Amino acid sequence: MNARRLTWRQPRRVLTTAVILILDLVVLVWFAFPIVWMFISAFKTQAGMFTMPPQWIFTPTLFNYENMFERGALHYFRNSLLTSLGTVAVATTLGTLAGYGLARGRFRYKKNTAWWIITTRMAPIPAVLVPLYAIFRSLGVINSLPGLVFAFTTFSLPLAVWLMMGFFREVPRDLEEAVWVDGGTTFRSFWDVALPLVKPGLIATATLSFIFSWNDYLFATVLTSGATQTLPVVTASLQTMQGVVWGQVMSMGTLIFVPVLLLGVAIRKYLVRGLSLGAVK
Q: Can you give the pLDDT at residue 281?
């Protein structure tokens, strides 16, 4: 009887594995094809992008990239990088401290406070743009990179707090209590025990904050102009009255995508561990 079950389950297991692999391949092609097409098209001429059937073997050209850098793409790349790194620094630092306080603190309405923080992230960006613009104008930070960092932080910080609170809750309290028994302070238990244990979660939170601010378009469109614009805004402006400058769009798209790709590859180990570290209780 057991031999018959084993004989029946073996081909069934092989079939299930084959189906899963095929579905994984379909999903991979579905998501990877536009990216591959963008990279290839960036080395084509405008006419070569729309030939039918598509040309997979062609003479590559660097015209699109040369034109992109002549238009000051490095300046806008710098703006995107500075605002994204600034957002990561502010949101991750404040989110880590607040998350630890919510995870270990003992005060009334702690759960309500945590819920209120995450609900601010649920608000749609257009709903807060008008009041945020009015506040920025009164403070004189319109068309400035620090103002854009503050705008990005308003949406990245609630998520950072919520994530870090969940990560710190996964740290056994006994480890920190051992530090307190030895005469250590709360800050020492946070710095020496809790923070090193949630390092993967900290990296995952910083990565998500970077990606959200790096890809942002709406905040940057409303709050910046001219020399303070970021890469997504400049790329969208390539749609002119005469049509879309597809060669420039493809080359700018690669400039936007490559840093995120390299970041993901560099920290993929920590990112997977961080996102699966634990759930908020």
A: 45
Which strand (E) or helix (H) includes residue 243?
strand 243-244
Cα 162 from chain centre: 16
Picking from 265, 260, 253, the residue whose alpha carbon sits closest to that of residue 39 is: 253
Which tens digits make up the pLDDT trace of 26-71?
998 888 888 888 888 888 887 777 777 777 777 888 888 888 888 8
CA dihedral 23, 24, 27, 28 (to 10 degrees): -150
Q: What is the mean pLDDT of residues 103-125?
A: 79
Nearest of 39, 20, 99 to residue 250 by alpha carbon? 39
Q: Cβ distance 163 to 204 under 8 Å?
A: yes
Rounded Cα–Cα distance for residues 129 and 223 (Å): 9
Helices (H), the chain: 2-41, 63-70, 73-104, 110-122, 125-139, 145-169, 173-181, 186-189, 195-197, 199-214, 218-223, 231-236, 246-266, 268-275
Tokens representing 74? 């490095």
Which of the four pLDDT bands, split at 50, 70 and 90, describes residue 241? low
Tell me the two tokens of residue 12.
Answer: 């069934």
- Residues 6 or more apart in contact with residue 75 via CB below 8 angstroms: 227
Question: Which pTM was predicted?
Answer: 0.82
Residues β-bridged to residue 240? 243
> Two tokens at 146?
């620090």
- Measuring CA to CA, which residue among 93, 98, 85, 92 is closest to residue 146? 85
